[in-house]
Predict the 3D structure of the following.
Amino acid sequence: MLHIAICEDNPIHNNRLMTLLEQLLEIPHSIKSFSNAEEFCKVLQHKDMDFDLIFMDIELGDGSGIEITGKINSLYPEVPIIFISQYLEYISEVYETEHIYFINKKAMDIYLPKALNKALKLILDPERQYLTFTWKSEKFIVPEKDILYLERQLRTTVIYTSSNKYYSAEKLIELKKRLNNWFVICHRSYLVNLKVITRLDKTFIMIGEKTIPVSRAKYEEVKKSLSTQLSK
């Protein structure tokens, strides 16, 4: 599921952008609109902000979209930003932030497909996909490709990578919602990365030298998901 935020204070432009996105997007998605800077900044204060792509108006009510983008760059550097504006005099200023496109609202029909295509290539590129979570007030951003498996231990989830391990209070099912479909729950206590398994049996999975149990109820689902992944 692709989660998109639109920060736009003009309802006409907002509706136009939403209509175009609905026409262009062919993957499951959700779109949420914000009409002022204060409203969106409240979202940024939450450590679990989960937008994958943000469209940012430069003049957002009483706030500055450029300033807000600077905050996003600092807190969520992996999230691509697309600026939208009818004021071309801001073109130089936006380059003080990290963004992937600047769309003139007058030419939205022409440039939105190009900007969206560029954003999706970044978002869907396995080399650029991340799992973001917090542990004891510290934020972590871990590349999905580095994650081997996740294990639920009592009230803590341990996230194992090729070189480290991390901790989260979130349950496996909550973390799975933010991971790609090649991550599957094979047991009530384990969520595995199908890209790195070396063997699948009816009762266990091998990841390197690590043996991970597979429950009877999950075996067929894991087998089907693995077959789908291998056929890509």
Remarks:
- The first helix runs from residue 11 to 24.
- The CA atoms of residues 81 and 157 lie 31 Å apart.
- The chain has seven helices and 17 strands.
- The helical segments are 11-24, 37-44, 65-75, 91-94, 108-123, 172-176, 219-230.
